[in-house]
Amino acid sequence: MRGAPRIPGPRSAADDLDAPARPLFGPAATEPELPPRTGGGTLGGPGGGSSGGPGRVERPSHSVLKSLLGAWALSACSAEETAAVEEHLGDCAPCAEEALRLRDAVALLHTDRDLDLDPLLRFRVLENCLGRRPARIPVPTWANPYDAETARLDALLRDIGESEWHAPVRLKWFEGERQVSRRTTVAGVIGHLMTVDGLVAGALGLDDPLGPAAPAIPTERTQAFWRGAEEPPTRTIREPWRDQSHTLVRTVSFAGRGVAELSVSYGDFALPLRDSLLDRAFECWIHAGDIADAVDYPYEPPSGSHLHRMIDLAARLLPAALADRRRAGLAGPARQLVAAGAPGRSLHLEVEGSGGGNWYIALDSPAAVGSADRAVAQVALEGVEFCRLVAGHISPEEAAAGQDGDREAIRDVLFAAASLSRL
Predict the structure, then answer these.
(1) For residue 131, what pLDDT is reported?
(2) What is the greatest pairwise CA distance in the chain?
(3) What pTM, to 2 d.p., does this model score?
(4) Residue 359 phi, psi dihedral angles, 5° rounding
(5) Top CATH class, 313-423
(6) Domain covering 141-300 assigned CATH 1.20.120.450 in the classification
(7) How confident is the model at residue 230 (pLDDT cuts 50, 70, 90)?
(8) For residue 327, what are the contacts with CB-CB under 8 A and spacing of at least 6?
(9) Which residues is 369 bridged to in the sheet?
(10) Which string of DSSP letters, residue by residue, matches 275-290?
């Protein structure tokens, strides 16, 4: 008894002279004297095609049909092959996409049209590629923390539900001697990040999300955004925030080395772009933690190397912050006059754990150099706890795990660290 006709693998190449190619369909494809079959099936797996009765042709396997797509696009298939391929294209999305691409390619071979490529073809190809997979561009090392923290926050936002965008979030920071707070929502936090990031965008010549007449002070910008919103922000804020962060990373990546020192103004102070993006990475992480707490989402600190850079930035800003508090009468007076660049009294800041290290904070002048041999006090903190202090999330009194030496210097530096926080 003869078995049902079946379809072998792909046809031999046309220049293969060892044996004539056997058609995939019809009687010539039948194997002689196959054992009797008891059930249906396909070459790709059991039970997927027509029954194995006489005179019936089984449906070819996926790999066989995929190998025919090029011939199908060139209209070189037989009628049976064409029917089988087109039936398959209705069920298999990947093959259908590949078939359309092949047909488009074949259309370029027609000689009855202008062979000059559409000038917009390159744009469409690049746009399509970038939409499927973001371009791998060489991000400067100093921009890596911002790139990483915005990506981590975006991953958190992708995971939360519609209702969680309206979950209450309390933002905390220090003003003077006390901790203050402001209640908003998850969407409100993202709007806050976007508006302050707009200062960096403006410095790079990009569009400011608040427009050209927007305030330059971060707190005023955020309040202006919240006041100006016709309705409370919703999850729709995620897309413009994400697009802005991607644009910032792409811009600094293509701008060249000199852009790192570009000044970014925050109204009453300014930072070079390399430090400004590090500051934005720090705030992105801190507020991502606020959001994670509000929606009960696990969230880890930054990598050790990125955390170390954030701590280093805060340590470098502490002498100026201490001087500001001294001028406002909130810190003890300087003990001695120090020439610019000369060593003066210092506090040894020891940060433990991942990202930690040792810093010597100048106590008497922002222009002085802190040194180990002039240290009059020492404070030891864990890395994340120090960052929480700088973010205004914990009070100076509860921050230090270990203290030794001049009590006034210790207090002044801890409160100066908390004063670095802002809305």
Answers:
(1) 59
(2) 109
(3) 0.68
(4) -135, 150
(5) alpha beta
(6) yes
(7) low
(8) none
(9) 343
(10) HHHHHHHHHHHHHHHH
